[in-house]
Specification:
Blueprint: H1 7-13, H2 30-35, H3 39-70, H4 72-80, H5 85-121, H6 136-163, H7 166-171, H8 183-189
């Protein structure tokens, strides 16, 4: 697009604007027009939300791995009775996936309520605040984060089942809880 038309050219091309020769025009970038001086606070809010999402994913990952460690003896008994490890892997993946999908749905419902509450309390100076909605892109993003975050603990638990000696697990006492994780990994996962 040409920006050097000149003021006279614009006056001639658009007489309905009723511009006078003493008037001035200033070109403003679209992002500045939409967000104004709120661009950086909105970027900081986005960064905080992404950081919170990462913490939530790490916490759910550590909780699901700890739960699978507690169920290790149960899985060993099933394996000793003849259940194939692929069937147990499917069960662990399905449980993890259902938990992730349910958590995403609950999160979307809570975010819908939170958006309504924030819009009701927001000052009028926030531009385009009425356009904040939960759309298909947001739902796809939520599930794109939730599904891998839910499947990874199931895969880790399945990997543990496939590499576990059934005899060793069945001979152990039940006082063990999550000790298959190295101390460094446990410290990293606990936030």
């Amino acid at each position: 697009a040409r920006t050097d038309l000149g003021f006279e050219g614009i006056m001639q091309a658009k007489p309905q604007l009723r511009l006078r020769p003493q008037d001035r025009m200033v070109l403003v970038p679209l992002a500045d027009s939409w967000f104004g001086n709120l661009r950086w606070p909105l970027m900081m809010l986005l960064a905080a939300a992404v950081f919170l999402l990462m913490i939530a994913c790490a916490n759910s990952l550590s909780l699901m791995i700890a739960r699978s460690a507690q169920r290790e003896k149960d899985m060993a008994i099933r394996g000793a009775l003849g259940a194939p490890w692929t069937q147990m892997l499917r069960q662990l993946l399905l449980e993890s996936l259902l938990l992730g999908v349910f958590g995403s749905l609950v999160g979307l419902v809570i975010s819908h309520w939170a958006i309504k509450a924030m819009l009701a309390a927001s000052p009028a100076r926030i531009p385009h605040a009425d356009e904040v909605v939960i759309n298909l892109r947001l739902v796809v993003f939520a599930f794109a984060i939730a599904v891998p975050a839910a499947i990874i603990p199931g895969l880790i638990a399945g990997w543990r089942i496939s590499r576990t000696s059934l005899t060793a697990v069945l001979n152990e006492t039940s006082t063990r809880s999550g000790s298959f994780l190295s101390p460094r990994l446990r410290k990293l996962l606990v936030i």
